[in-house]
Amino acid sequence: MLFERPDDDTLYDALVARSADYEGQAYVCVKTTGIFCRLTCPARKPKRENTLFFETIAACMHSGFRPCQRCRPLEQQPGREPVVDELLARLDSEPEVRWTEEELVRRGHDPSTVRRAFKRALGMTFHDIVRYRRLGEAARQLADGARVIDAQIDAGYESPSGFRSAFQRMVGKAPALSQNRELLFADWFDTPLGPMIAVADKTHLHLLEFHDRKALPSELEALQKRVRSSVAIGRTPAIDQIEAEIRDYFEGRLTTFRTPLALGGTPFEKHVWARLMEIPIGQTRAYGDLAREMERPEVVRAVGRANGANQLAIVVPCHRILGADGSLTGYGGGLWRKQWLLRHEEKISTETRMEETA
């Protein structure tokens, strides 16, 4: 009988209980650490909202997660060929070896037999696992300031273009952009208006957009060029904080965001964004109003461009800007979202006033 995957809540309960009921049939990926584990792992349990569940090891590794060093999900699975466990053990004990097909033959293995055994056991080939491990180590080296050529050689790539291509698939940009720079991390979370994508370093939020914003790919590219770094899948405290604050905002419990922001625009754009954040919740402004408040009534068009250049949706509330005639005008997340946000904020403002006068 085929395995019918339980829902995520059931799998999370099994994780908390360290139940072996789904051993080898489901794995947990922890978004805050980038690690995946068996459900029986003895490590401290993550929060429910920080977990993802997959049925295969291949799905975990293809999603950018690395195996836990405590429960070692790659090892000791019953019923698989001995060559799998043997080569996995050698990966750990002989990290300096370049595992080419010629090396496998030299050690008495048939490469095609090894490939089939790993595919049956783990859903991916031996060389897939070698490549993921090397790329992960290369990412850490570059973040610590290693030279690109050193990381390339250590990762086992003789061709610079081959290394760049593989690294690009992992972190999204050329590795030189990560040299001597802290990597940015990206993750998403659900909201009543659809998923939002957050990009942050360890302390500051750089980008927050709805997932279907058409300009999002170009915004991500521009962000990476501006900070001269790359974006990897993962979590930071800044992303955890903005997720909690956005949740409280949608539930009507929060009117002021406190997540530290990395505002990367021009001085004029930063001035406009600062003015936007001064607009009280439940109120709106026209572009002309904002220009006059800045004592520069001649820059209405520039105010509009700065408003459109905002990459921190909701937090920098560009949705509170209307046309001169009171119309909704444009909004990168869609006019239907803008209308919803304004009605939501009007409701929050009304309830707050009622509580203050009660």
List the helices and strands and how they pair.
Blueprint: H1 8-17, E1 27-30, E2 35-38, E3 51-54, H2 57-62, E4 66-67, H3 82-93, H4 101-106, H5 111-122, H6 126-143, H7 148-154, H8 160-171, E5 184-189, E6 196-200, E7 205-210, H9 216-227, E8 231-233, H10 237-250, H11 267-278, E9 285-286, H12 287-293, H13 300-308, E10 321-322, H14 335-357
**Residue share in helix:** 40-55%
End-to-end Cα distance: 63 Å
Q: What is Rg?
A: 25 Å
State mean pLDDT (0 to 100 scale).
81
List the secondary-structure elements in sequence, H or E: HEEEHEHHHHHHEEEHEHHEHHEH
The beta-strand count equals 10
As laid out across the biggest beta sheet, the strand order is: 3-1-2-4
Global structural class: alpha/beta
Q: Strand content of the residues, in percent?
A: 5-15%
Number of helices: 14
**Shape, please?**
elongated
Uncertain regions: pLDDT < 50 for 5+ in a row? none
Quaternary structure state of the chains depicted: single chain
Largest sheet: 4 strands, mixed
